[in-house]
Amino acid sequence: MSPGAERFGREAAKRSAAVPGLTISYGDHPLQSILMFPAKRPSGPAIFFYHGGNWTNGAKDWFSFLAPALNARGITFASIGYRHAPMDMFPNGFEDCLYGFDKALRSLAGFGSDANRVFVGGHDAGAHYAALMTLKTGWRDALSLPNDVVKGCLPVSGFYDFGPDSGFNRRPLFLGMPEHKGERFASAIRYVHPQSPPFLVAYGENDLPQVRQHSSDLARGLKQQGVIAEELVLAGQDHWSTGFAIAEDNGPWISAVSWLTGV
Prior knowledge:
By secondary structure, the protein is α/β, with parallel strands linked by helices. The protein has 9 helices and 8 strands. A hairpin with a 7-residue loop joins β1 (22-25) and β2. The termini are far apart.
């Protein structure tokens, strides 16, 4: 784990300690679980969120602190865990995100939320998985879900391209062996299409160079296909501090999410 991730994890755990959620499992592995935070007075929407950690670490508990600001607006929040590399290479973690989504979706009725108003988001590696699942087709049929089940995507400080011009100094570990061609299948930007739902692509003013480039490229690619795509630059924030900035009540991200989800 990088020093930045370690610092983020410690602070996130501290902020999340006082925000208990309901744990729901969707598989046998300990990481295949969900923390659900139902709104006391749900207005309908739900946001399913995936943590970051370079695809190799992190925890769903990291983003419990995001729940209060969303719950206060009637939004049910779920933080979905997934397995990490190197024990589980791509696409295992990504497939976990899909199965976790399905489990969380089928749990919404018990919390008074609307399964027809579900948005996905994530931070760092979780932003990548959220964007990839929103743009890729086929998995919805496999889970007997409608094509428009994801109503919008809210990726924060993510990576969306693993091709030769992606800007990485070295090949990300989670992609597995080169002969598996993980770069091709994991690049969310390859799957942009005109029927994509709206996107709010957020990143920090001082974010990683690859993140800034990938985010701008994704937003531009979506707009070129006629898709609603808002690019939100979080002033003064770096790659890890964006994870805390999005929880600021009445901050720019919460305000934009409120607009996009219609609350």
